Amino acid sequence: MTNDQPQTPHSAQTPHPAGTEPPGSHSTSSTSPTTPTSTSTEPPALTRSPFTSDTFTSATFVTVGSGPRIALAAVWLLTRAGMLLLLLRDDLGIGGVAREVALYEHWYGKFAAGTFPPGDATWQYPPGAGLVIMSPGVLPWLTYFQAFVTLTLLADAVVTLALARADAARLTHGAWVWVCGLPLLLHLPLARYDVQTTALAVLALLALAARRTAAHQLGGALAGIGAMVKVWPALALLGTPRGRTTREAWTAAAVTAVVLLATLALFFSESLGFLRQQGGRGIQIESLGGTALALARSAGAWPGSVEFRYGALEYVGPYVSTLGHLSLLLTVAALGWLVVWRVRAHRWTPATPYDTALAAVLLFTVASRVISPQYMVWLLGLAAVCLTSRDTVMRPVALLLLPAAALSALAYPVLYFDVIDGTPTGLAVMVLRNGLLLAAALLAARRLWTSTVAAARDE
């Protein structure tokens, strides 16, 4: 469920390194025009890795005039129309993707009664998620389903505009990754509130790139709201540069989260009830642990089965609890690694906050007991933000996420019966998808460390 794109050729206005003359310019130096002078020890572009070359980092679309933006808008309209058609039919594979919106509508009734869903095992979200669930109420002339999908498309459009605007002079492929990548998930994104959550994280990261205090505070506030909606957007702040930016953003995030939590607790009962449901989660069949159990079951080495629990299909049987504890241990280890990275990192580029967010979310995703297909929406959005910057080191990571996204759509809803039954086809899809995610997470961590810790040590 992710996509990556090509690049644009250099403009004739490309700046030249200090001490060099642009081709064709007149110089007062006595150097002969036929004797080339070079003050750079950098190797030619063609000898470098394709992931760091100018050819890879530019967009393939001509950046003169409004053509690229018109093309982007046209592709957005076409792909979203296709996603909407699939959602209205909702008969692909196992079908029933839109049933989640019906569950949201059920919860909407509970909020209208002044309470978070009491004792509902499927409610496993922080209290801020209630705001997204209640948001279709702002469009009372539509049905709940219509209003929810409309607001999801609006959030999608906001992300697209923000990514395109991130580089006003040259449309990098970050916006194209989002526009062309989201449809890899088929119609699933339109029936989940993860697009809205991703919008908060994307806008937070892009705001942090500005130099103004107000922008840092806005980015922190958006990340704080996102954390109250689905926790993971808090990771968007891990890569903020030390000093004023970090203080301003983290303070704004903390204040916003506390105020939002207090407000929701004041007006709604059971605001922290989600903690009980989260603690009881097992191993979802699409997680890395689930794939290990599926392989063991297919080999006859594990006698467990699949059951519907806590709103998802999970494995039950011997060693499931052990794998659950191992997953939590890996989550703690990922957090510990990120803390060590934060302490030791000494080299920041404009892309470091973006790269850190993607690496962190990938690490927490692969360590999770649950890797629902909509998690790929988060990774697509963060990869797109990374690719708005020429300084990013996450281009190969984004390339790995693309086939992982497509395989996620195969796993659900197209081949979900095969995944449930553990057929060779279902096993192959899950092994490939989770293998790509694991490789992406490890590569992201390595490249983040190399570019910020090892590079600083070598300078």
TrEMBL record:
Lineage: Bacteria, Bacillati, Actinomycetota, Actinomycetes, Kitasatosporales
Superkingdom assignment: Bacteria
Subcellular location: Cell membrane
UniProt feature, compositional bias: Low complexity: 19-44
Originating organism: Streptomyces bikiniensis
Principal location: membrane
Membrane topology according to the record: Multi-pass membrane protein
Keyword annotations of the record: Cell membrane, Membrane, Transferase, Transmembrane, Transmembrane helix
Keyword Membrane applies: yes
Name recorded for this polypeptide: Glycosyltransferase 87 family protein
Segments of skewed composition (Polar residues): 1-14
Pfam families membership: GT87 (PF09594)
Transmembrane segments: 144-164, 218-238, 250-268, 319-340, 360-385, 397-415, 427-445
Region (Disordered): 1-52
Entry similarity comment: Belongs to the glycosyltransferase 87 family.
